């Protein structure tokens, strides 16, 4: 494992996308729900992982290697580049500033509407704090 790609495991749409990655995109990264990782040890906050997918490069001991953490479309670009093959050029394209400039608003729109996406549920629309409090009252 050279990196970890974190997604929101409480979101059905995000989990569906992660399953697609695991089945179809041969990345060396650990594709994991952030709820099952020690995000503080990875240098991340709950607000960051709740806002966007994250890509964290790791050293041989499994700790962040000091490179900047990538979020949203930049994280997806890193995952695609890491996968190689036909995915590498797509990741390289997504990494370009003009493409990222368009990708970020699109990513934010999808994130705001993930409950309406295929596989999404009403719980996908709630911020993490509200999902946590709903669990506590169940």
> What is the mean pLDDT?
89
Gyration radius (Cα, Å) is: 15 Å
Strand order of the largest sheet: 2-1-3-4
Amount of beta strand: 5-15%
How many helices? 6
Helical residues, percent: 40-55%
Pairing-aware structural class of the strands and helices? alpha+beta
| Largest sheet features | 4 strands, mixed
3D shape: globular
Distance between the termini: 37 Å
Count up the domains.
1
- Total DSSP E strands: 4
Element order: H for helix, E for strand: EHEHEEHHHH
Low-confidence stretches: 131-135
Protein name: Putative DCC family thiol-disulfide oxidoreductase YuxK
GO molecular function: protein-disulfide reductase activity
Pfam family, one: DCC1-like
Organism: Phytomonospora endophytica
Entry keywords:
6 helices; 48% helix; single chain; alpha+beta
Note the topology.
Blueprint: E1 3-7, H1 12-24, E2 30-33, H2 46-51, E3 54-57, E4 70-71, H3 72-83, H4 87-95, H5 97-112, H6 128-137
Parallel strand pairs: 1-2
Antiparallel strand pairs: 1-3, 3-4
Helix pairs in contact: 3-4
Write up this protein.
The protein has 6 helices and 4 strands. It is α+β, with helices and mostly antiparallel strands. The chain has one domain. It has a 4-stranded mixed beta sheet with strand order 2-1-3-4. Helix 3 runs antiparallel to helix 4. The longest helix is centred in the last third of the chain and has 16 residues. The protein is globular, with a radius of gyration of 15 Å.
């Amino acid at each position: 494992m050279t990196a970890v790609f974190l997604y929101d495991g409480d979101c059905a749409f995000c989990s569906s996308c992660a399953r697609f990655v695991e089945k179809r995109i041969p990345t060396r990264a650990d594709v994991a729900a952030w709820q099952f990782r020690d995000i503080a040890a990875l240098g991340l906050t709950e607000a960051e992982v709740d806002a966007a997918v994250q890509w964290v490069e790791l050293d041989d001991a499994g700790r962040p290697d000091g490179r900047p953490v990538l979020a949203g479309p930049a994280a997806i670009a890193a995952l695609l580049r890491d996968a190689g093959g036909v995915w590498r050029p797509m990741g390289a394209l997504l990494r370009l500033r003009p493409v990222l400039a368009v990708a970020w608003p699109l990513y934010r729109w999808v994130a705001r509407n993930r409950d309406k996406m295929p596989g999404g549920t009403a719980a996908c629309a709630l911020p993490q704090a509200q999902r946590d409090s709903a669990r506590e009252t169940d």
